[in-house]
Amino acid sequence: MRQYTSRRAEKCLTQNVKSKMILSFILITVTLLSGCQKNSTHSAIEFGTIDVSEIDKIELSGTTGGKDGNYSYTLSDQEKKEFVHLLNQVELGDEVDKNQALSSGAVTYYKLYFQGKDVVTLCPGHYFGVDEKYYEFVNFDELWDEFVTFNSKQDTSQQDKWDCSVTCAETSETNNYVVTYSDKKVFSQTGILTFQNSNNFNIIVHLQIPDEEERTAEIPAGGVSSLYQISQNKACTVGVYADVPENETIKLMVYDGAVADLNSSQEKEQVYFDATVLEVKKKSIKVKCSESFDSGIPVDEEFSVTTNRVESGELPDLNAGDHIRIVFDGIIKESYPLQLGNVFAIYLLDENGNL
Which one, of 183, 154, 178, lies nearest residue 166 by Cα? Predict the structure, then answer.
């Protein structure tokens, strides 16, 4: 009887050991699978650790719904800092199917050139693309308006008119020739840039073209002058000299094209649509299209519109529920949510839909 009891206890002990081994194996397997799944669903790039000093340059490219199609732009040093700061806040989730991501229509790309010669292509949208993979954009609702604002600020390569007016940085003297530079970047598609002096005094325009010698043009008060053989699609910097006191405004308009094309280049296409304000933020408003007219925007489409770059410079006091009319240049960027080109004005409508 004792021997039998001993063998039975030994048998039970053996079974317990086997059960524990199996349970441990299951736990290890589940842990490994969970770890593999976690690693495979997150991007290899850690946005929170990117430092602007690691990046040589950032190129922005994309597609608009306008007649000019594709556009590209190289960010300035200040813009690069702003964009990296925005990237530091991005949170990614699980990897999603590429076809699913592409169907959302995200077509704005940022190409980051790292100093180690690595190049990473980002595609922010409802889903966030990193090279050939796409991920859930966890804080999309929190950051998307910032991306919209940033994209609108950078997308100047398709413009044909720039306000490069400046405030004189310092009074020029006999041995101190002061040029004040505009923070706007100008581009030429035609190979010609035309400068319009809107002041009652003479000015000298200084044009800096990447990898080329600086060009200058003397323009009398109220006059117009053109520079020819401008390299196409290069981000040029415009500076102005004038014999005026410090803090004096120097008005200067720049156009892509010859003097003969000046009047036509000033005529911008304007289209508009009516919408209901859904949400008001610091630099943008979320709206829902209520009347499309000929704008090409679908009725009931919801998207954000930047308010810090309205060309009219005037913006009514807006609240959720207000009915408004938005006037823009007709360019609709093919992204999700959609984005507008240049916004000329935003008007508040009365209860009858009138201005």
Answer: 183
The gap from C-alpha 92 to its chain's centroid, in whole angstroms, comes to: 19
Cα atoms in the 13 Å half-sphere on the side-chain side of 159? 21
Cα–Cα nearest to 73, from 52, 58, 95: 58
Asked whether 326 and 272 are in contact (CB, 8 A), the reply is: yes
Handedness of CA 83, 343, 338, 349 (dihedral sign): positive
Count CA within 13 A, CB hemisphere, residue 197.
21
3-state helix, strand, coil in the chain (%, to 5): 25, 35, 40
Centre a 10 Å sphere on the Cβ of residue 351 and count the other Cβ atoms it contains: 6
97-116 pLDDT, tens digit each: 888 777 655 467 889 999 87
DSSP-derived secondary structure letter, 297? P
- Stretch (H or E) spanning 276: strand 271-280
Average pLDDT of every residue of the chain: 78
Q: What is the pLDDT of residue 107?
A: 65
Q: Comparing 98 with 69, which gets the higher pLDDT?
A: 98
- Averaged pLDDT for residues 1-18: 47
Count Cα atoms within 13 angstroms, Cβ side, for 70: 5
**Block residue for tokens 């410090």:** 246
Tokens 């043009």 belong to 217
- In sequence order, what are the residues at sequence separation of 6 or more whose Cβ sits closer than 8 angstroms to the Cβ of residue 215? 206, 207, 209, 227
How do 252-256 and 193-197 pair as beta strands?
A: antiparallel
Side chain identity at 254, as an amino acid letter? V
* 41 vs 34: CA distance, rounded Å: 11
pLDDT of residue 326: 93
Burial class (CB in 10 A: 0-12, 13-18, 19+), 53: exposed
Number of C-beta neighbours around residue 247 at 10 A: 10
